[in-house]
């Protein structure tokens, strides 16, 4: 069989009474115009796409080291300026530039979670608009040298500073007991221990010492003031000891009135004054002890 081209050429060379026939090869008419239009449109789109890509690279500041404020270094990622994270950030270490501060800003709160291998939260720190909350087994505050200043856990709260200062105008309220070796006020300030509705008890296995070196010492109560020593003694050491409101006995000795009184003690421990005589007058005024 002849090839198609040879067969066509052979037919065209054969004499014919109808005349030579011409066969056109290609795309003509409206198809050609549509093809050129689509080719032109594709070129325009390619140019626009290339221009937009170059513009985005220029605006986002793409370089070999990174993009925008983000730089890729040997030690990790480096951010310059303000950065916004819309999803959780996982990092081994976050630090600022030497000499600059590190700020965390949020419209609601900032939460820092410490997770274990099973992604269980061990420690959580939440800083919100109303409070700062910390969740963990133990909370500690230390100095740069490692000295403990404050610690708190489920069993106790420890203040390791040399001095605990409370600046509130109403003082400090302890609903239960307090254990301390020393309670002292600031220089030239008053120290007041007060229990408005209940009793105030001070106990120590080796004694309680109350000392006011540059001022007065005052103890007031509504019902009873009791000083008790089980194994030792109670010592009132002062240049003058005054008991101005002791009751007076009704005994009046004969003769001139004296301004000398005798201090008497009842069996129930009550004290009273009796005008002194040649002998003891305490037994005459036993009605005071009733």
From TrEMBL:
Topology relative to the membrane: Single-pass type II membrane protein
Top-rank lineage group of the source organism: Eukaryota
Organism: Pipistrellus kuhlii
Keywords per UniProt: Cell membrane, Cytoplasm, Cytoskeleton, Disulfide bond, Glycoprotein, Membrane, Signal-anchor, Transmembrane, Transmembrane helix
Transmembrane segments: 34-57
InterPro entries: Sarcoglycan, Sarcoglycan_gamma/delta/zeta
Lineage: Eukaryota, Metazoa, Chordata, Craniata, Vertebrata
GO annotation terms (biological process): cardiac muscle tissue development; heart contraction
Name assigned to this protein: Sarcoglycan delta
Principal localisation: membrane
Localization terms from the record: Cell membrane, Sarcolemma; Cytoplasm, Cytoskeleton
Family: Belongs to the sarcoglycan beta/delta/gamma/zeta family.
GO CC term, one of those recorded: sarcolemma
Record flagged with keyword Nucleotide-binding: no
Claim: Cytoplasm is one of the keywords in the record: yes
